[in-house]
Specification:
Helix content is 19%, strand content 41%. It has 531 residues and is an alpha/beta fold. Among the domains are: 19-145, no CATH class; 259-346, no CATH class. The strands form six sheets. A six-stranded parallel beta barrel has the order 22-24-27-30-28-25. Strands 13-19-21-23-26-29 form a six-stranded mixed beta sheet, with no helix packed on it. The relative contact order is 0.12.
Length: 531
């Protein structure tokens, strides 16, 4: 009986359907509660991760921009930390400080900024299950390329001509101080022959002849943006004395003075910071300009009459504003010291000679040994022609060409011309600001001049041609042949077009230890988020 009762009871229970829902709910409740808890925790994780990732992304980019600039490269960690903090709110109370460091990218060395960070906090569900707090990790990496500044001592400023710079024949161009063309033509710099070229770098807003790509080791940059005429904002000076109308003539000179001349030129650069030049402290520039100490000796050369044996010293200090504000304003100071020593001075009775004073001339056609007195010489509509076997000298001079005036320097003459310094320009009435910009300008073609026409400006020097300064012809083509030397600075030629012929030898464009500092393009820094 008992067995039958149990069997019937179990059968009735198996057939009973009341209370099933309650049982199922009871069995599924842990899963339901767990799923809800996990969903809440996953939502928290996602919010933390999204904020943390955005913050490290912005921090990496900010740090990379700082590292790409030489003025701020030492602050890249600080900038990354500041940007990270500015983009944190939800995880502000429980995130760790970001780790900021330089990293290698795409074969480079320390050319990116990597930022990583974590946020750790206990969450109700996951912490109950694991017994540990939850941690979210984020990582970002931003690569950077520093902007580069290029200088040049040969610049063609025409904007669309083919062959704006043309190198012909067997010319030798080993100045290694840069060549640039602003022309956007596909052949803005071209070769017509088999020259020897070592310009250091070749820059063009257009294309460059394939010959240069396969026959030189120069850095070649084509189709560049941002190339510019460094003298486009300058206007030629016209002090009172240069406006006096004069005529060039040769007259008998009682004598000519010769001497051995030793020149030592020391240029030193120092760097300072402060609100003005009266309140400065030394500043360590991470990329200073190199100082130089250049000496030269010439024996038995013509010097101004009245020269006596002894030493003369010329000194000047020029300040340059490097930017910044307040106590962080940066300054560059250039101290220039030139010592000239005259020895073995002899005076020889001379024949015809011309002594020329600053003023306005229609023509100066050198017909005898000629010494230019310091100052500004305007050539209005005519020409300055130096040829023959004459000796031509002038220290502290500038020639300004107006109304289609031209200059022709032909082989055979002994020429030694040096541009005006800041102090010499100021002494004739040029303002300090303008004098600082115009210092070193030897020949300046007025930009309102129509240019010299098809014959252009002709520079055919020889071993005894010394031209210290910048020659600027914004409206004319320059035909350069022969050679020219310098003693105190690189010879700079900027012209509408430049043609270098087959007899050119430009190995002496820059004296040893000198550099050309005329900037023609500054490329922008680049930053990219790569991870």
């Amino acid at each position: 009986m008992i067995r039958k009762f149990i069997r019937n009871t179990m059968s009735n229970l198996a057939e009973c359907r009341s209370g099933n829902a309650t049982l199922l709910v009871a069995l599924g409740m842990p899963v339901l509660i767990g799923g809800a808890g996990l969903g809440v925790d996953v939502t928290q994780w996602y919010m933390w991760k999204r904020e943390l990732q955005f913050a490290v992304d912005q921090a990496a980019v900010a740090g990379a921009w700082a590292a790409a600039d030489t003025d701020t490269e030492s602050t890249y960690v600080l900038r990354a930390q500041q940007e990270f903090a500015a983009n944190i709110s939800i995880t502000d109370d429980f995130n760790a400080d970001p780790v900021v460091q330089l990293a290698d990218y795409a074969g480079g060395t320390n050319n990116s900024v990597a930022v990583s960070a974590t946020a750790t906090k206990e969450l109700p569900f996951t912490s109950f299950l694991t017994g540990e707090a939850s941690t979210v990790y984020a990582y970002a990496q931003a690569s950077f390329e520093e902007g580069v500044t290029f200088t040049s001592c040969l610049i063609a400023i025409d904007e669309d001509d083919e062959g704006a710079v043309t190198i012909g024949g067997s010319a030798v161009l080993t100045a290694s101080c840069g060549m640039a063309a602003l022309s956007t033509d596909d052949l803005s710099i071209k070769v017509d022959g088999s020259p020897e070229v070592e310009a250091g770098w070749i820059l063009s807003a257009g294309g460059v002849d394939e010959w240069l790509k396969t026959n030189t080791d120069d850095v070649i940059m084509e189709y560049m943006n941002g190339l510019y005429d460094p003298f486009s904002e300058l206007e030629p000076p016209n002090p009172t004395e240069s406006q006096i109308s004069r005529e060039y003539t040769c007259s008998a000179e009682s004598d000519t003075t010769f001497a051995d001349v030793d020149i030592r030129t020391i240029t030193q650069y120092s760097y300072w910071q402060g609100p003005n030049r009266n309140n400065l402290e030394p500043w360590v520039n991470p990329d200073p300009r190199a100082s130089s100490d250049v000496s030269s000796s010439d024996n038995d050369i013509i010097v101004p009459n009245g020269t006596v044996e002894g030493t003369e010293t010329q000194q000047e200090t020029v300040w340059r504003d490097l930017g910044g504000t307040g106590q962080n304003k940066k300054w560059e100071r250039r101290d220039f010291n030139r010592t000239t020593t005259y020895s073995d001075v002899t005076v020889v009775d001379g024949a015809q000679a011309g002594n020329v004073r600053p003023g306005t001339y229609t023509n100066i056609h050198i017909a005898c040994n000629t010494a230019f007195a310091p100052g500004v010489y305007n050539i209005d509509g005519g020409s300055l022609i130096i040829n023959g076997q004459h000796e031509v000298s002038g220290a502290g001079v500038m020639f300004v060409l107006y109304n289609g005036a031209s200059i022709q320097i032909n082989g055979g003459a002994d020429i030694n011309l040096t541009a005006m310094t800041v102090s010499e320009l100021m002494s004739v009435g040029v303002s300090a600001a303008d004098a600082n910009d115009l210092a070193g300008m030897l020949v300046f073609e007025d930009r309102d001049s129509p240019g010299a026409g098809n014959n252009g400006q002709s520079l055919n020097g020889n071993a005894n041609t010394v031209l210290n300064g910048t020659m600027y012809f914004p409206n004319s083509e320059v035909f350069f042949a022969g050679t020219a030397g310098v003693t105190s600075q690189c010879l700079m030629i900027a012209a509408n077009n430049i043609t270098i012929t087959g007899t050119t030898d430009m190995q002496t464009f820059c004296p040893e230890a000198s550099t050309e500092d005329t900037t023609v393009v500054s490329t922008e820094s680049k930053v990219r988020l790569v991870a």
